[in-house]
């Protein structure tokens, strides 16, 4: 008989993260079969925004710092990597008031394509809502926006975290 302890912790986390991401895609597909895209986009925006607001609670439980823009960016990156493993990117600009990160691989976008959801504004709305609320929950002095988005056809996403 196999016990949970027989499954390596790293594998358990990967399975849990992938399953929760697949669940989100499943809801999106199901909603889009019975509701107008604009209604689904509004629902998903609200749900993902609330998810982003939980980042501060997670950061506090892990005793991660959020006092300045670099700490917010690092903490956001670590927690984001836990929640959505496989995101790849690099910081391309960093100073005391602004951080720019280029994301080159997004497992949510890849998963969206695999389950047959069309690329477009829907995923971008959810992603934007999650990330903006995540950054603002980590430290209300900062906000986040995207200047490039793979879900709209760009070759990478560009995230800008800056003072409000």
Topology:
Elements: H1 9-34, H2 37-53, H3 55-61, H4 69-83, E1 88-94, E2 98-105, H5 107-115, H6 121-138, E3 142-148, E4 157-163
Antiparallel strand pairs: 1-2, 2-4, 3-4
Helix pairs in contact: 1-5, 2-6
Q: Can you put this structure into words, describing what you see?
A:
The protein is of the alpha+beta class. The chain has one domain (4-163): Muramoyl-pentapeptide Carboxypeptidase, domain 2 (2-Layer Sandwich), CATH 3.30.1380. Helix content is 56%, strand content 18%. The chain has six helices and four strands; from the N terminus they run H-H-H-H-E-E-H-H-E-E. The chain has helices at residues 9-34, 37-53, 55-61, 69-83, 107-115, 121-138; strands at residues 88-94, 98-105, 142-148, 157-163. Strands 1-2-4-3 form a four-stranded antiparallel sheet. A hairpin with an 8-residue loop joins strand 3 (142-148) and strand 4. The chain is globular.
Which percent bin holds the helix content? 55-70%
Mean pLDDT: 90
Strand order within the widest beta sheet: 1-2-4-3
Largest beta sheet, briefly? Answer: 4 strands, antiparallel
CATH topology: Muramoyl-pentapeptide Carboxypeptidase, domain 2
| Contiguous runs where pLDDT drops below 50 for at least 5 residues | none
Strand content: 15-25%
Shape: globular
CATH uppermost class:
Alpha Beta
CATH architecture: 2-Layer Sandwich
Pattern of helices and strands: HHHHEEHHEE
Number of helices in the DSSP assignment: 6
Distance between the termini: 55 Å
